[in-house]
Amino acid sequence: MESASWVVTALSMLVAISALMVSLWSARRQTADAQKAAIMRLVAEFIVVCRTQDFQAAQRTVVAELRSESAPDPQGGISGLPEPLQSQVKQVGGFYQDLGTLVVLGVVPEYLIVALYYRFLREVWLAVWPYLERERISLDAQNAGSVWGSFEHIAVYALNTPFADIAKRFRRRTYVA
Asked: Which residues cross the membrane (predicted)?
């Protein structure tokens, strides 16, 4: 009788351990799913912002004005730009800074952000860089910190990585005629 009791106890322990393992796996899976959902909500909010007419107009203006032959002198930095261009640069650059901060903090994968905003991320960075560089020199002289380091982080990745390499991270189908 004692051996039967031992078998029942061993089976009970095995069932309990199995239930514990399933519970732990389930909890881990639910946590991962909740994290993905939160990230997707955040990304969706940024997508909504960048698709507004106001943002798109500001982005086009920043690239066109700062890359034109008649662009303002970068020596004054971003603060030296005339209005409304200065506000547009801050709006657009701030948007990419916020995205970059999410990347730097590990909240959103870098390849995802760069894939979504690849073209304009590169164009805006190249347009604002001469002005940002002067702005940083001015801020450093005042011991006032720096500006847009996270924007720079994702911009450098976008500038140094061909889109085809970033696209390889996604499982996607392509149309062949």
From this structure: 6-27
